[in-house]
Design brief:
It is a single chain. By secondary structure, the chain is α/β, with parallel strands linked by helices. It has a single domain (2-149), classed as Rossmann fold, CATH 3.40.50. Helix content is 40%, strand content 17%. The protein contains 5 helices and 5 strands. The protein has a 5-stranded parallel β-sheet with strand order 2-1-3-4-5, with helices on both faces. Helix 4 (82-91) links the parallel strand 3 (69-73) and strand 4 (95-99). It is globular.
Length: 150
């Protein structure tokens, strides 16, 4: 399984940015955690982060024929980017959305997730463990899908 993990704006500031909301885990800690989970699960992973919407769209498009699944944390673009939604729909790759914080316990504008409209499932409010749950969900989803094909 080839997984592309795509992180949006300000995730590179984890550990610095609003630690009361996002915790004290740094982005380097998050990357290490994802790599450890993927190694344990036998998953090839590419981890990417950008603060720029168009770059994130380009990354999603590059997954076409190059990734089996996408795990995405669009961050603030969750609530604003139809372009990211359209890119996810265009590549039609099994996608899980993840958020460190509980977006439904925050400001009302954060309750709408455009990217989530293209996702099989969303994990939110579980910190970095949500990434692990998303990875394992995608692995199980693809295993079931491949089993049905045989």
């Amino acid at each position: 399984m080839k997984l592309s993990v795509i992180n949006g704006p300000n995730l590179n500031m984890l550990g610095i940015r609003e630690p009361d909301v996002y915790g004290k885990v740094t982005y380097a800690d998050l990357v290490s955690y994802i790599e450890e989970v993927c190694e344990r699960e036998g998953i090839e992973v590419d981890i990417f982060q950008s603060n720029h919407e168009g770059v994130l769209v380009d990354k999603i498009q590059s997954c076409y024929h190059n990734a089996d699944a996408i795990l995405i944390n669009p961050a603030a673009y969750t609530h604003t980017s139809i372009a990211i939604l359209d890119a996810l729909k265009a590549v039609d790759i099994p996608t899980v959305e993840v958020h460190l914080s509980d977006i439904y316990q925050r400001e009302a504008f954060r309750h709408c997730s455009y990217a989530g409209m293209a996702a099989l499932k969303t994990f939110y409010g579980e910190g970095i463990v949500g990434y692990e749950k998303g990875i394992c969900y995608l692995k199980e989803y693809l295993a079931k899908k491949n089993k049905r094909r045989k």
